[in-house]
Specification:
The chain has 218 residues and is mostly helical. Helices cover 76% and strands 0% of the residues.
Length: 218
């Protein structure tokens, strides 16, 4: 079996795992009967992982049919992976900060998959998978468009329902505008940094030669 075919099947398998984790996380949260669970789809993590499932299915089918991904798919993967990986990093920091503040944050197996295991596997796949194209540097600023739009909507909606998906966005849980802007600025920097690393990996000479050899042998 060609490397691309194997990779296509792996993409479809990852989509199934991600979907199962999302469904479990939704059902697990709803069982707690909290407003956070009722707002499952308001989390950036969940929104980006839903987009990730769709991309994995599309990418898996394309990998089974073509020797190389179209450029739009590679760019889309770079954007979505930047969001999911950053969400995992931010979640890890939140769990740590929650412990420091004496706030209990439960992490079910579905959260572990969505925030830690899938991002780690996708980084490895990004570096090693056959058929990827190089990503233009303009992807880095484009990566910020979604979190900025999501953040603006969240800050508009938060006061209306009295709830925010992440504590550092809630004016009641931060010391003031300085802390809010600091945490928000750090999050945006991480988004951009993750995107830059993904772009850099895609443009590495050794990565391109390996990709070209795989495509030629397919």
């Amino acid at each position: 079996m060609r490397a691309r075919s194997v990779f296509g099947l792996l993409r479809l398998g990852a989509a199934a795992i991600c979907l199962v984790a999302l469904i479990h996380r939704l059902s697990w949260g709803l069982a707690s009967n909290t407003i956070a669970s009722e707002n499952f789809f308001a989390y950036l993590t969940n929104q980006s992982n839903i987009a990730f499932v769709v991309l994995l299915v599309v990418g898996g089918v394309i990998a089974l049919r073509r020797a190389q991904d179209p450029r739009w798919l590679t760019i889309a993967f770079a954007l979505v992976l930047s969001w999911t990986i950053t969400a995992g990093i931010v979640f890890a920091v939140m769990v740590w900060q929650g412990g420091e503040r004496g706030i209990r944050i439960d992490v079910p197996w579905s959260d572990q998959i969505l925030h830690f295991w899938l991002p780690a596997c996708t980084i490895a796949a990004w570096a090693l998978a056959p058929g990827h194209r190089s990503v233009p540097w303009r992807v880095v600023p484009l990566t910020l468009a979604y979190p900025l739009a999501w953040g603006a909507f969240t800050m508009w909606r938060g006061p209306l329902i009295g709830w925010y998906p992440y504590y550092f966005l809630d004016p009641r849980q931060v010391s003031g505008p300085v802390e809010f802007l600091t945490f928000s600025g750090i999050a945006l920097i991480v988004f951009a940094a993750v995107a830059a690393v993904l772009v850099l990996i895609s443009r590495m000479p050794t990565r391109r030669r390996w990709r070209d050899d795989q495509s030629a042998g397919a």
